[in-house]
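2 proteins. here.
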Amino acid sequence: MPKEDNNNKQYTKEFKELVLKRLDPPKSESVPEISKELNIAKSTIYQWIRTNDKSKKQSIQTTNNKHSSKWSSEDKFQVVLETYTLTEEELSAYCRRKGIYVDEVKSWRYLCLKANATISKDPQKIENALKEEQQRNKDLEKELRRKEKALAETAALLVLRKKAQAIWGEPEDE
């Protein structure tokens, strides 16, 4: 991507943007890392940062503008992956670069490790409990139908009694 021009390397705008993008969160690679990898002078990269707009420059500095509580789950998981094998000193340096606390990373790591550690019950017990509940439900529905029929019968008898009284009147005592 760099173009050669009289011993001075000239870089395309797209290449500079790609390098500057690598400095942004969630990757937040350091200038020395990129400088060594791409064989570009650190001063050149710092010059690109200075010439870029101020909002871009602020997000590239050692702390993140975005508070870690607003990070996405993927970003937090990425941090856990990147820091899992680091020593305490390396972790501290990493956290300073990212603008986060070591305790946050440790809590994210703990949550990631416990994410799939749910306590599972014996499938046979669950199946038996389900069968019991289904039988209980069936019995309750049967009892409900019986009571509905009795209620309907009682209502019908009351209606017949009222009709009989309307037709023949009140029964007389003899």
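next one coming up
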Amino acid sequence: MSEWTVNELFERMASHGNGAYGLSDVTQLDHALQSADLARQRGMSEAMVIAALFHDCGHLLDIEDVDLASQGIDDRHEQSSADALLPIFGESVSEPVRLHVAAKRYLCSVERDYFDRLSDDSKLSLELQGGTLSSDEIAAFEKHPHFRDGVELRRIDDEAKVAGLDVPGLDAYLDTASRLARKAG
């Protein structure tokens, strides 16, 4: 499908999000809902809450929900996720999503202990995604207008892997997503 609708994204998340999220003890859906809830708890904008909800949707759009990193494959999900979200919600949602993998590379480059805090699957995928950034790449990343949101989304991504956590379901975000889509349209 070349362009998704809000309802189709929610349906895909509900129907395909039950597979394992990498090597963690949560599903793709659990991870998405925990991410959105963390963004909401931190008082982030509605756009960032929806970005957090769908930041990994690229894992679910075109392929089965599998852990490609363990097979040595970078699925570039940040790109496919952002590309799916851009026509629906605009850059305030798509660009932090597009940057959340680069933000991991950035944080590993600028924070001494960040790598040690990564989950095992994030450490595995880091090398597939290009490893740490050079000083020129750090400077270029910091110039991106959405880099701070990308970093905040990355931090949420790292935390949203708690098995059994009780958070609001998908339906809690449908009105917000629909409203954002109407504004972007």
